[in-house]
Design goal:
The chain is built from 13 helices and 16 strands. The protein is α+β, with helices and mostly antiparallel strands. It has 2 domains: 277 residues, DD-peptidase/beta-lactamase superfamily (Beta-lactamase, 3-Layer(aba) Sandwich); 113 residues, Methane Monooxygenase Hydroxylase, Chain G, domain 1 (Up-down Bundle), CATH 1.20.58.710. A 7-stranded antiparallel β-sheet has the order 2-1-15-14-13-12-11, sandwiched between helices. It has a 3-stranded mixed β-sheet with strand order 7-6-16, with no helix packed on it. A hairpin with a 2-residue loop joins strand 4 and strand 5. Helix 1 packs antiparallel against helix 13 and helix 2 runs parallel beside helix 7. The longest helix has 16 residues. The chain is globular and about 60 Å long. The two termini are 24 Å apart.
Length: 410
Amino acid sequence: MKIAAPGKHGFAPERLAAIDALLKARYLDTGGFANAQLLVARAGEIVHFSSQGPAREGGIAIDEGSLFRIASMTKPVTSVAFMMLVEEAKVALDTPVHHVLPEFKRTGVYAGGGAGVPFQTRHTDQPMRMVDLLRHTAGLTYGFQNRSNIDAAHRELKLENWHGGHDLDSFIAALAELPLEYSPGTSWNYSVATDVLGAVVQRVSGMRLEDFFRARIFEPLKMHDTFFTVPADKLDRLTDCYTLPDPVRAPTHKVMFDRGAESMWSVPFKLVSGGGGLVSTALDYHRFCCMLLNGGELDGARILGRKTIDLMTQNHLPGGADLTSMSKSLFSEAQNAGTGFGLGFAVTIDVARSMMPGSVGEFYWGGMFNTAFFVDPVERVHMVFMTQLSPSMIYPIRRELKTMIYAALN
């Protein structure tokens, strides 16, 4: 791995080093995170890469080869895969979802019931379209939202249990039997929409989702350490993953969620999740970010066209709204104020309202284990952050990283 001189790329090295010091003092020494890895790049050149903490309990330190579960950072990959099919004119953003997934033909909007009472539904005001899946306006939800009878049904039916009874097709069939939270296009709710988008990619392409990712995205981009299932010869590089059972009353009492040596990611999941199933490295995701920053191309491999990337990174919320006015979600990977949503990413539309340094047009997302990335096309800067602790909303780590990275720009 080559690391460029920060000063030659407009960064103050001592200010970048201060980020590592903060991570150690605030998160590692206090027991909040077991480890932390930070990559900062400008114009595709890595200007800062740091690794702190052990990969496993009592083990060696994380390094550039360490593998991390990136959870919802899978969503931009699935969105890119879908847009590749759009570029081939095999599907369009305004295509009704039921044209590809006929299971959704009769899915209605919640009008009552649940908790043992049959659901009542009404017709949608307009059909769910592909763009609704990409921008989370489809009317779907997640079981962990804990805010409605519909997400309660997700939990009861174990819809999001990847090692459970459902494969991607039977997941779609079961999901389509539940009502939508709202009529598509009228609100924003973080949801399994990108898992549904993965099923669209699978059916339109005629390839298994994991095969499409590998052949069309990972191999061309030389992302050799990104996969849904960790190969046996790479399992020793997979980090331990933790969770906080009671993040409010015991914010540093983490327990093991998935032990790297015997990980659930070492066995193929029956339900392949385009919304959250990938494992990757910081260097692999760096290459994905470079492709996005370069307008869809990296080292001669063209994944998407430049104008497609431009389209994806604009705000697609109806009427130019931001998440503050449209979100019904109790859980979000985004700060709402000044934030729109594009085709697979949150997008900064008003820097002042976000109350963080940044640029209009910056796009980003993160995962439930506190991984995160952002890409700033104006400053040509991007970041990849890796650790392994859920839930992701317990610490303001993303705000802190963003603030300090921009503060390091000369």
